[in-house]
Amino acid sequence: xxxxxxxxxxxxxxxxxxxxxxxxxxxxxxxxxxxERADAAxxxxxxxxxxxxxxxxxxxxxxxxxxxxxxxxxAAVAGRVVFSRSTGKLCFASxxxxxxARIQAMVSLAxxxxxxxxxxxxxxxxxxxxxxxxEVVSSRRGELxxxxxxxxxxxxxxxxxxxMYGELSEESRVRSRFLDLIVRDxxxxxxVARARxxxxxxxxxxxxxxxxxxxxxxQVQPGGASARPFTTxxxxxxxxxYLRIAPELYLKRAVVGGxxxxxxxxxxxxxxxxxxxxxxxxxxxxxxxxxxxxxxxxDLTQELIQNAAIAVTGSTTVTWADGTEYxxxxxxxxxxxxxxxxxxxxxxxxxETPFDELVAIAEAEGVELPPHPIxxxxxxxxxxxxxxxxxxxxxxVMDFPLDTSPLVREHRTIPGVVExxxxxxxxxxxxxxxxxxxxxVIQRERFVEQAKLAAKGDLEAMRIDEEFLRALEHGMxxxxxxxxxxxxxxxxxxxxxxxxxxxxPLVK
Length: 508
Known about the structure:
Its cofactor is Mg(2+). This is Lysine--tRNA ligase. Homodimer. Its EC number is 6.1.1.6. The chain is of the alpha+beta class. It has 2 domains: 140 residues, CATH 2.40.50.140; 259 residues, 2-Layer Sandwich (BirA Bifunctional Protein, domain 2). Helices cover 36% and strands 25% of the residues. The strands form 4 sheets. An 8-stranded mixed sheet has the order 6-10-11-18-17-16-15-14, sandwiched between helices. A 5-stranded mixed β-barrel has the order 1-2-3-5-4. Helix 8 crosses helix 10.
């Protein structure tokens, strides 16, 4: 199978042997380009090009030309060849810009001459980046085009593109995201959506007087969440370090220091499982606001998400990849954890319910006990079994067990419960929020209890952080805080899995 035949058969998926053959042919063409530029520095390709316009700009300006129309306007553009066809005296190619916009290049014998036309036929392949200059016209079929007068290969694709009209497998999309971006509109749209989400979050925070900061990713001890960390070693300090699992304890130091409205969009790392909603490396938003509580921070979180939905889709009703519409508008429900669990289980469950009774309920329901079970973990497992599947609209699940939330203030009226919520959308936890624990005496007691769990083998238990406690001892104002996964926010807005929302996810 020759490379010329391969590029004209857009529906053919080349075999490994054919790819090898095509690579050899294309390398030969590169050698020819190199020989033609023997006196030029920089290798076989030009360092810069006299581009006057972009493909999207031309489409916006001349997209409504009637079939056969001529403009008399000369433009010079560059793009990737994603379709090529020859009719003898005329060659057609679709040039694609980075955003997916396309324009047709028409290389005519009558305009460029026999030598240039033949050179195009011999050198240009699917995937190449090509520079063309010529008049902006509309073809007889009404396709916006450049009637080429000058052209040049800007960069040669040594390997062929995948089938532009087929579907890459999910594994191929993840492992070769660069190809996914070339061939699939949805991949490019997801990158744009993520950028708009981050911009919208920052705009909303700015409107509320928040400052964005950066905190350490390498830490002498992990903290701020119950998770297993990645470890590394610093040769300069001859010390073991940890990739952060959360920025919480540093952001709270900032609040102690007087930055009363602070947020960070950051990368976190947790040495745990990977599935459709979890990734070992993920993007996280955390924010803290002095002189508010978990109710006020819930209002802010709802506004952040609704504004992000509008920024991406123009509406708080989003359409997922499978066509399902999901309504993020209005005021979201706030559902007490213990009350909703009691209603669903058909029996009263409270912070005082005996541990053995919780175990009996779990066993009767076939709920797998978590490692190192404690009262709060069992309550949360039972809630996920009985209540979570019934949630459809975005819902703040309020008031969690005290013993699973060591950084959260105890509820002001309900003993054994803390002022914490988890936000559920699309069947998964999207965000969490707290009335933050600011008393260093109680915080130390909580850390000690966590240390006891760690001594029993709980790898996710928190450690005593003396530096953080010292900061609290200098006085932290009453504060509301929240954390939200950026990848999961994209999942809620697009209906995609987590590996689709991350540009380059970790794969084995």
